[in-house]
Amino acid sequence: MALASQPRDDVTDVQALREVRDGAQAQAPGAGDDGPAPVELKPLASATDSPDARKHVRPSLRFVFSHPAHAIGVFFGVGCFPIAAGTAGTLAAWITWPLIAAWLTPAQQGWLVAASIPIGWWACSITARDLRTADPRAAVIDEVVAFWLILWLLLPAGFGTQLAAFLLFRFFDAAKPGPVGWADRVFHGKGVWLGGFGILFDDLVAALCTLLVLALWRAL
């Protein structure tokens, strides 16, 4: 039986496929010259069982640079880090912010942070859609935008305060206590654009929680 020609999925470097025969479809009358119906190829259930099951999928570099939204969403490959991609994204934000801020006034820095929110929303939405998962771990622009917000409001702060902000933000983002957990769930699986905003939303709430804790610490 002939197999339908299908291009290789660029989402991952290796993806298992199985043949699924649709026995219910009979050959249409008069279609004898066209031959039997082609076999449909579908991903294995174990590899792509659900959008949530694919959240750990690590995209290939070809996928990252195939679309501007992918490049921004994965922060130019940082999200491909094999472990703790969110921590890698936060660290990348910490490293890049002083380099960017050195060329901008505080007001311009604020405008950059404000602009990065809708850009990050767009990038998260497209990246999640094309990776076929509700909240891909590889999409780290949400951590980048949220930690840029923290640094914009904190600096000029000493290294100790910045390190405390880094650790607090990673705690809130990973453990998702209280309001962060609510923010993580409220838009989860609500479609491309609401779901994409949800990817960013919980990190923004984690950033606000981080700033609140630091403010209370300073007040004591």
Short overview:
Helix content is about 55%, strand content about 5%. With about 220 residues, it is mostly helical.
Question: What features would you describe in this structure?
Answer:
- This protein has 220 residues and is mostly helical.
- It is 55% helix and 4% strand.
- It has eight helices and two strands; from the N terminus they run ββαααααααα.
Q: Helical percent range?
A: 55-70%
- Chain-averaged pLDDT: 81
Kindly provide the radius of gyration, computed on alpha-carbon positions and rounded to a whole number of angstroms.
22 Å
Q: Distance between termini?
A: 75 Å
Total number of domains: 2
Unreliably modeled segments: 1-33, 35-48
Helix-strand category: mainly alpha
Q: What spatial order of strands do you see in the largest sheet?
A: 1-2
Q: Please work out how many helical segments DSSP would assign.
A: 8
What form results from the Cα inertia axes?
A: globular
Order of helices and strands: EEHHHHHHHH
Share of residues in strands: under 5%
Number of distinct beta strands: 2
Q: Describe the biggest sheet?
A: 2 strands, antiparallel
Tag the structure with descriptive keywords.
8 helices, mainly alpha, 55% helix, 220 residues
Spell out the blueprint of helices and strands.
Elements: E1 17-20, E2 40-43, H1 61-64, H2 68-73, H3 85-101, H4 106-131, H5 141-154, H6 159-175, H7 178-186, H8 192-219
Antiparallel strand pairs: 1-2
